[in-house]
What does this fold into?
Amino acid sequence: MPVSAKDRAVFFANDFPPVTSGIATAFLNLCLRLPPERILVIAPRLPGDREVDAGLPFPVRRIRIPTGEGRAPKLLKTGITLLHALKMAALERPSRLHCGQVLSSGVAGWVCQRRFGIPYVVYVYGSESVRWGGGVTGRLMRRALQGCCRVVTNSDATSAEFRSFGVPEEKLTRVYPGVDPGRFRPGPKDPDLLRRYDLTGKRVILTVARLDQRKGHDAVLRALATLPDAVYLIVGRGREEARLRALASACGVADRVRFAGFVPDADLAAVYNLCDVFAMPNRMTEGTALTGDIEGFGISFVEAGACGKPVVAGRSGGAVEAVVDGQTGLLVDPHSDREVAEALRRLLKDPAEARRLGEAGRRRAETLFDWEALAGQIEAFL
It folds into this structure.
């Protein structure tokens, strides 16, 4: 029997493919494992979205919203999302709204709950209360969080942040980002990729992340100057690329750095398997418009672990939950170039330890971070 609109949950996902981000990856993978007849995703209209949507088992409705990250675009995005949500709620009366961002769609959820009595869930990822918790955006956030029936966090660190922001303990549910261990798994180094990135016969350090300050690419570049036998493969794009290229030249390591740019999700497992060590010494962003931004969890740590790779992570934010120090990887002070370099040197020079950490990371990915189990937590409150 067909499911009516009233029995269907609506997911407002401003980060959704073809957007490339950890949040977009998480929303896609969770939704892929929910009953397709019971969900509708509302996402931004973007180039390439038709190709994405054509391959999905659930319906996606695309709307035009701005994609900027400043305060003004955030408020405009909130207003536009609210208008779409009110129209949809009035005509379709879904069973529940799942609001992928506390500001834009969270505020829409709050208004729809007051106007139509539709319960809503808010998803948070870390740093929102630091970056947007003051002034009008802070007041809107508090309204959205007070009115929802559930706040889904991506780590205990993010739960603690929002507990301090006033969210009651009973509203908080932690659902870690996950991985598909059947797709992300240990495998041989692809010879075509080795040739493409000129990695044949080399020890490879890898980072898969947006080129943002908080990811710590610069710390790896400085460490590379002390690791003459290593090559650094950087996968991702972002605002820091020009600065990182200049730093690689200044450190005298430009010839050992490969900026791979965007890599399609379907090819990521093969890319992880190129490396000997995965490194992302994440830290809190300082001195920019994104000051206070932290790594809420770090899905790439889990993907690397699922591929059997040891990881080096910053002792910051939710990364301390994604990586178990001394068991699946090494946690370092992300502000200490010496610690970053020593951790990388240790794993590159001790293949037995690197293998032990990678095998433990694989086991942990299979038991704790499998998307199938994580989606079951979300299905419980569709």
